[in-house]
Every structure is written in structure tokens, then in C-alpha cells.
Amino acid sequence: MNETETLLKVENLRTTFETEEGVEITPVNGVSFEIDQGETLGIVGESGSGKSVTALSILKLIEDNGTVTADSLEFQGEDLLSKSEKDLRQIRGGDISMIFQDPMSSLNPVITVGEQIAEVARHHGNLDESSGFWSEMKRKYVSGTEVTAPSWRRAVELLEIVGIPEPEKRAKDYPHQLSGGMKQRVMIAQALAGDPSLIIADEPTTALDVTIEAQILNELRDLQSEFGVSIIFITHDLAVIREICDRVVVLYASEVMEKASTEDIFSTPRHPYTEGLLKSIPKVTEDRERLDVVEGNVPGLVDRPPGCPFSARCEYAFEMCEEPLESHNVEDEWTVRCHLYHDDVNADVKNGLPSTETKSQHRETINADQRKQ
Ligand code: SF4
Q1: Taking burial as the number of CB atoms within 10 A of a residue's CB, which of 50, 326, 330, 370 is the most buried?
Q2: pLDDT tens-place string over residues 123-172
Q3: Domains along the chain with CATH numbers
Q4: Could you tell me if the CB of 340 is within 6 A of ligand 1?
């Protein structure tokens, strides 16, 4: 595979669940993006926007009452949707691995961290080491992996790669004996143990303080250049996106609102929601008492407004915003899902995001209509 070949192609991904009351909800609705070999793609949005369910849907790690469909869900040219559960188990933790948000609840508290990394290396790392059920049980709960075994040596090596001091000693520790930053490094080592082509990192720095967060981000960047692995980085923090990502997908209420290069998004955001997110980032150069906020909350999954889901919070909303949304290509590889970019909308409006006065009346009308429903 050459440097620019598409590694993962997601087209019109849709995940639905049926609630106990029989209501269908759609936490992922028509999400599309691609990621190339060696690239870092950021998926950003508030809580409840569908970021984590998107990641879990790619690996079909969805509960039984959920359904995942897509026009295309291809990894290395192969259709993931048609794979059997057995094949998917080989891909999960192998070609595609995940780093979860909270290492304390993701790591097994009664098994040493070395054992947990060694297990992944044994199953996915081509080490030619026995991995049958009973030998796994014996290793886990009775004797542990021998320190001379290839998988244990790989675990120690990976702990060293992710910057854990005294890796031989630390490999024998249990998760509670490590700090938060170290546990997150263990999660990264575990993700690397299967020699993945793609790592999905779901808010991997949320539980960490800013100093450790910076160290972990540096670590991920270094590992990416060393191993050429692609990363999907899920976060609610645009500042983190700016640090680490080549391109960004902005999710809101289960839909992709804007998709562009990190540079373009930060220099000239086109979608009102992206603009609001960027304005809410504190700047050390500004002396102000209050930060800008995007007023209101993401609409719930069962009470989505007709038309644009952002309309109740958008200061540019106008009549057309009650109609179904479409994505518009504003430039090459830059799409925006907003009626301001519709061909029927006057060019002054399209280019005039800062001017909002005339739109605010329409916004009030829309809000009043929605309250009546
Ligand atoms: Fe949505 Fe309309 Fe605002 Fe665009 S202008 S984000 S379509 S409410």
C-alpha cells in the first residue's frame, strides 16, 4: 500500500437502535469520511454528537438491538460489513485497534499489565506462540506468561516504546499500581501489540491533566511517524485536534456538519457550529471575563427538529433551515452541511458568516414553531 492510498472508507454510515418503547433512534446518521495511510483524522463534537458510536460502528461493536448499515465500509479495500464475526475478531485488536477513554475501566484489574499486552501480541502479533483457551486461562490466572516467551518480551518492549521507565518491572504491576498517565500508556502499548494499520483513539486524554495530556499526544505523534500507523482521534477538544490531526470531521447530532483540513477549519470555519466551537477556545492573548459559548444543548435522539438539528442554537438560522439538509462542496475536500451554502442562497449570505442580525428574526420564528410542536 502506498503512502496516499485510502485505508478506511466510510460512506453513509448509519447506526440505529430500537428503544424499549419501540422507538427507533439514530445516533449515527449518514456519516462519511476517508482516512489515508499514515494520516490522523480528528472527529470532534460535543457529548451526544455520535463520535464514540461512529467508532464502535466501524468495528461492528454494537449491541444486539442496534443495526449498522453503510453504502460503503471498506478497510484496506475489503468490505467490513460482510465480514463474519470470526473475521472481525481478527481485525479488532489486530489491523484496527482501539484506545478507550478511561484506562481504569478498560484494563483488567486482576491481571498484570504485561500479561494484558502479551495476550494481544499472542493473538494478533504473528509470534507463533500457543494461544488456545486453556493455555490462556493458565497464563492469566495460574502461572502467567514466562518472561522468556516472545509475547512477554514484546510486552516489555512496547512498554519501553511508550515511555514507561523500568518496563521489565512495571510489566508485572497491576493497573492500580500505575498512575493515570502510565495506564494510558499501557493502553497505547496494548493497541500497538497487534501491529495495527489503524488506531481509533476515543478521547484518550480526557481523564488526564494537561501536562500528561501533552506527553501522551507527543507520544502518539512519535509512534505514528515511527510505525506509519493511521489514527482516528475522537475528542470534544478542538485544541487537541489542532495539535495532532491532518483533517477534521465535525459531528453534531449524529451528522457530519463540516469536513476539511485542520488548517482550513482553523483559519476559516464555514459552518456556524464549527465557528461557535472555535470561538469557545480560550486564548491566552485575550483579556476577557467570559468565554464565548454555543448556547443550548445537542437535541436528544428522540426529539430531533425537522431540518437542521443545529437550528435552535444557530444565530444564522433562516426559513430554509427547517428543510432537510444536504452537504455542499465548498472547495476540494471541504464539505459543509448547512443551507447557507445552498445554490439558492444569495452569495452575500454564504460569505457573510459574521453578519447575523437579519437571521435572528428567522431564528425566533423557527424556535417558536418548534416549541408549539
Ligand atoms: Fe443549520 Fe441553518 Fe444554521 Fe446552517 S444556517 S447551521 S442550516 S440552522
Answers
A1: 50
A2: 887 777 777 777 777 777 777 788 888 999 999 999 998 889 999 999 99
A3: 102-195 (3.40.50.300), 269-372 (no CATH)
A4: yes
Q: Is 257 in the pocket of ligand 1 (CB under 6 A)?
A: no
Instruction: Enumerate residues 6+ apart whose C-beta is below 8 A from 2.
Output: 37
Cβ–Cβ under 8 Å, residues 131 and 101: no
CA of 262 to the centre of ligand 1 (A): 21
Question: What is the Cα–Cα distance from 48 to 314, expressed in whole angstroms?
Answer: 18
**Crossing angle (nearest 10°) for helices 150-161 and 180-192:** 130
Q: What is the Å distance from ligand 1's center to 309 Cα?
A: 8
DSSP E strand boundaries for the chain: 6-18, 24-36, 40-44, 66-69, 72-75, 78-79, 96-99, 198-202, 230-235, 247-252, 255-261, 328-331, 334-336
Which residues on adjacent β-strands are paired with residue 9? 34, 74
The continuous run of DSSP H or E covering 135 comes out as helix 133-138
The three state secondary structure string of 294-352 is CCCCCCCCCCCCCCCCCHHHCCCCCHHHHCCCCCEEEECCEEECCHHHCCCCCHHHHHC
Sheet containing 247-252: which strands, arranged edge to edge? Answer: 96-99, 198-202, 230-235, 40-44, 247-252, 255-261, 334-336, 328-331
- What nine digits make up the cell of 66? 442496534
**For the chain, how long is the longest CA-to-CA vector?**
72
The pTM of this model reads 0.86
pLDDT in tens, 21-75: 888 999 999 999 999 999 999 999 988 899 999 999 999 998 878 999 999 999 9
Q: Which of 255, 274, 311 to mutate to test the pocket of ligand 1 (most atoms within 8 A of CB)?
A: 311
